[in-house]
Structures are given as C-alpha cells and as structure tokens.
Amino acid sequence: MKTVSHDAAAPQPPTATAAVARSTPARPASAPELLADAVRRAGLWDLLAQRTPAGDPADVRVLLTPQTSGYRDATTAVDSALLECLIDMLHARGYRHVAVGAAGHCPGIWSGRPDPTDAQDACRRLGYSGLTPQGNAYPIVDLSEDLAPADFPLTGVLHGSSMARAWLDAEFRINIAKNLTHPEFGYALCLANLFGVLPHPDRHHHYRARRDGAEVITELLRRYPPDFHLIDAVVSSHGLAGAHTPLPIRTDTVIASPDAVLADVVGATLMGVDPALSPLMAGALAEIGLPPAYHVDGDLTPYPQWRNPPPVALDAMRRLSSHGRLHRLLAASATADPDAVRDDDPLLAKVSTGLTALARNADGNPLALGALVGLLGTAGAGESLVRAWRAGYAKHAVHRRDVSLGLDLENYTDQDYDALDGHLEPMERLIDAIPADFLDMRWRHLDGSVLFGCDRCVNAPFEAFTARVDISRSISYMTDYLGGRIEVVSRDTEGRPVRQAERNLYLQQPNYMAFYGGEPIDVCKLESIRRTPDMQRIAWRTVRSPNGSAEYDDGSVTFRAADGGRRTRITIRVRQRFTLPLVWQAIRPDNWPQLRDPLTQDAYRRFFTRTLDNFEARYEGREYRIGRPEETADDSAEELPTRRLTDMVHTARALAGQALTTVRAPDHIDADGFQHFTPGRTTARTEFLQEIRESLRPAFTGFRKGLREAVARDLRDGERP
Prior knowledge:
Blueprint: E1 16-22, H1 31-42, H2 44-50, E2 62-66, H3 80-92, E3 98-102, H4 108-111, H5 119-125, E4 140-142, E5 147-149, E6 162-164, H6 165-169, E7 172-182, E8 186-188, H7 190-193, H8 203-209, H9 213-223, E9 228-237, E10 248-257, H10 260-271, H11 279-287, E11 294-297, H12 311-318, H13 325-335, H14 338-341, H15 346-361, H16 366-393, H17 414-418, H18 420-433, E12 441-446, E13 449-458, H19 462-468, E14 481-491, E15 497-506, E16 521-532, E17 535-544, E18 550-562, E19 567-578, H20 582-587, H21 593-620, H22 641-659, E20 661-663, E21 668-669, E22 675-676, E23 683-685, H23 687-719
Parallel strand pairs: 1-11, 2-3, 2-7, 3-4, 7-9
Antiparallel strand pairs: 1-10, 5-6, 7-8, 9-10, 12-13, 13-19, 14-15, 15-16, 16-17, 17-18, 18-19, 20-23, 21-22
C-alpha cells in the first residue's frame, strides 16, 4: 500500500470520513433516512458549501453518475427512488443545476438489446423519469456524447483520450455505485462504476483489454476524480455474479465518503472480503492509497447471509484473457436477453440461459459450481493454447497494448540517465571479447543472465539511415514489440531526445515459453542518447518490471558510419535475464547445459536476426510491426464466437447429411440418357447407417432425458434455503 509522509510543520489534510448508515431491527430506517444520515455524517453539505464561496448554490453544476448497467433487472442498478431522493435533497438546499450522467453500453450484438448505447433509454428502463416525486426536473446526459479533449498526462494510459463535457465542466461530481459482487473483480463498487464515465461505448475493449483497468481507474482518480461517493446497499445483489445475474438481498445500508478508495474498502469489509481482492482496488491502494487521515463512522459487521463469489470461480474467470473473445462471450451471454438473441444467434441464447442458471446456483450447489468452473477452466486452457500459438506462429493476430509509463520520473535525476554509459561499459567490453560465430553474434552466460552482441552492416548511407530510423525509438523497432510509452525528459538544442524513460511490452521470450504459461516481457527503462557526426547511440537500463517478467534487460544500440559513410553498421549489446515459468524453474536448465545452450543460442539468433531485419525494414519503409492495432476490437457480428460455431454446426449437419445418403435408382432412363425419378423419391439414408441410428436412438434419448432431469433436480435443490 502506498504511504505518504508529511512534514510535522505542514498543515494536516482534512480527515476523510466514511459514513455507514444501517437499518437494524432496534433502529429501523427507510432508504431516504439512510441516505440523509450517510451524506450528512460524511460531510457532503460541507464539501458543497466550499464550492459556493459566493453563497449562491444555484450556480454550482452538480453531476450525478449512478450505476445504470442494470441489464435485465433493476436490482443491479442504483435505485431510481434513492437517486431522485438525493436530487430533491440537493434542490432543497438550493442546488438546482443537477444532472444525471449515464453511460452507453457495448454494441447490441454483445448484449442482446436493440440499442444499448442509448443512455436515455437505459435510464428510462430503470425508472429514471427525469422528474422527481417533488417535481424537480433533471436532465439525463449521455457521457459518450459531446466529447472534449481531456488533459491526461503524457505518461498516462489515457493520454489522448476525450471525455464528456458534462464531466469536465461539472463543478461537483457524485459517483453513486450499487452494492454488487462481480465474477472477475470479486465485487464492483465505486471504482468499478468509474468505467461508466469514460466515453467509449465498448468499455471492455478500450478500458479493460487494450489498457489495464487498474491503471485506467487510477489515472482517472488522479486527474478528474469525483468529489463524493455513495454506495446504494439498500437492496444488494450478491452471489457469484451479482453484477450480471441478479440475486437480490436486503442489506439496508448506505455508504458515503469523499474518497473512492475509502468507500470501497468499507464496502468490501461489509461483504466480508479482503478489499485487495479486486484488481482495481489493489492497483489504487498501490498507487494512491488511503487518505492520509480518515475515519470510519458506523458499524462494519458483515452483512448477514451474504454470499461472495467462490475463490475457485474467480480464479477460473481471471485465467481468461480480457482480450479474448471467450471473455467477452461469457460477459455477453451473462447479460444478454435470450429472447432477444434467439433468432439472431440461437447458440448465444443457449449459452446465456445455461450460464445464468449455473451462476445463480453455483454458490450453494456444488454440482453447478463444478460445472461452471469446469467450463471456465476448459475455455481458459483452450484460449491459452490459442494465445501461445499466436505468439509463435500467428503474430499478426496478437493484440497490441496501450500502457502507462509505469514510472514516477520525480524519483530520477539527470545523473541517473548520464551514468548509463559507465554502467554498461564493462559489460560491452566483455561481450566484444567473446569470439563471434558465423553470423557475427556473441553470447555467454553470466550470473544467470545472458550477455549477447551482434552486428550488421547495411547498404544504406549513414545520413539517410539515421534520418529515417530514429535512434531514440530503437527499442520499439525490435521484434515481437507489443506496445509501450516513451516520455522525453530532456532534449538537445535541435529538439532531439537525449534523456528519456520508456516502458516496453514484448511477446514471451523465447516465444515457446507461452506454451508453459510464461508472461509477456514488461519492462520500464531509463535511456540516454548520444549523437556525433558519424555515430548515434542509445543506452538503457531496466529499473522496474511491472509483472516481474525480467530481472535484467539492459543494453545499447549503436548506429555507426561505415565505408566512409556509404554504409551503416548496426551494433546491439544486451544483458538479459527473464523470469522462467514454473515448469522451467523446476527443470533448472542451468543443470543441463547441453539442453540450455542450444536453446539459448537459437532463441537469441532468431530474435536479433529479426530485429536487425526490422531496422532495415524501417529504413526501406516496409511494415515490420506484429499484432493488431490498438484500436481493433472484436465487436462485429461476424466476430461472435457463437455465430461462427452456429454456422459450423449447420455446415457439419449439411455435410453429414450428404455423407449419410445414397441416391436411389431412377425409375427409367430415356433414349437420350436422362434419368427420371418419381416426385418425392430422391434420396434415402443408407440402410446400414439407418439401422444403427434407429438402434441407438432409445439409448441416447434416455440418457439425455435422465441427465436433464438430474440437472433440473439439482438446480431446484440449490434454490432451497
């Protein structure tokens, strides 16, 4: 958890309060009473007063952003009565400029609804009428429309993104979450609800697959945070997938706080789980942390009879890649309306019905939980094989990533960058002393890492080559590069980078490590660049690996004029030590040099031969990058896995039908050779296969009927208290 130190003489920050208002048999309270009590004790009115120094609250633009993704049941969305009660409370205190910001949702083919991107329509279904019981009107604003450039930092994962003007221009933002469990995060409260304020309707791809969701939420909290947070836990939805398959339970609670992390910590505690169970919370605790001073005002006794997602199911769901179509399919099938998609995609309707039944009963029925975990495990294993295959043999199909810099540049000085050459010099002299092989490559093991060097002289004039191939972007030209981010720290008099920090992502190295569960290489580096009339050089040192995939990835690339400048020599020197998957750690390849050395030599030869090829391709203007562009999403109807499977089943049936038929003899053949058949007598099953089919029909019919009855019986038993 991130900690913050403060000077004793510095003014102390205000104490953030998390207020927990609960209705109990001894002290019953209605939902409006709980809301009024929670916001008062958490300091909402004091915070609003600070935004109205002139004393005219009517001039303050207040934006409420409730959880509105109640796909098939309003239980999974903020209650309209509670929302409108808050609006009436704001109007009663003079805040009359109040709007509701709602989020559009993923494309309809993934959700089974005709126009899910219409935020106003989604709100109307949830009972948000635009007029409160006390007659106060409120507009509903679609946060996917009327966008304006947002000032996200260059080092951030959201740099270049836009946001709705309603969010940017609001003078006070109130984030209202629903109290829900989640099949992947464990729970979905204030942090998860912030995905809804981001503009792209396909949030899954842009904010959870293309980018890391925890980084997205952390950056949003730092740059454009809400001013207050509420959790509607009057009627909650618990169980394995409360956010998608409603399982209502009365918890009669409202939580309020000016701090999102504190509110979610309290909410998770009431659920009886470790707050860091959610990757969103784990990221926020590491990067932002709890407020320096905070206070919890209320009872934190866990909700009675509350059901959290079983850990085994969470683990199985998290094994599915957020990039994968299977992950999207499971989310879509859990939220789709089977009746809406039955005609369009019958297989999706069946998957939706089956998953909903399993999710509803998995908490109390071991058979249903086992079936669900088995399904997820099988899907995850299959998807892992597909990802591993792509890493080695279909690199055009892998997904590129958009990431933050992953470093706090204030922790480094110019001396840290300038010391890189001295740090690398002993290593490079050792590499140059190693005899070169027939490909002019040198390598040796050193303290568990690999020293490697290679050279190539290309037929390109030095001036032309360096004009087209930017030395400061050398790492991004290397093979298997998935994405990254660069922040220039200082430039020379001509505006060229001389000190910079960079984060790089690569496919697993060697690529076959993907078949053993190896992680993609993810490293953050400090870099320095030097230029002379006949030489350009970039040197780097790894200072962090966010996923622990590398202990060393230091090195340099040098472009040097050759043959009087008529050609260019490229020299690469590196020291690398990547973390091996558990299987290879158990094998301990250092104990088997006869196995280790050929594999190491082949891996480095392949990687750096392709890397040198990429430098030439860059000079010649040819495409060299692997993977799909960052903006590509699998959201077209043709990309639905169930649509493809349905087509495959229909094709297989047609082919099987043709294979199991034989043409009957014609009634007669005329003088011209034409065959004549009696209408209705064209084809028939072969007698042998027909006999087999008829003999096996009772057995299959009986088995299916018995299995269906057993499953129905188990599901009924699971619903009983």
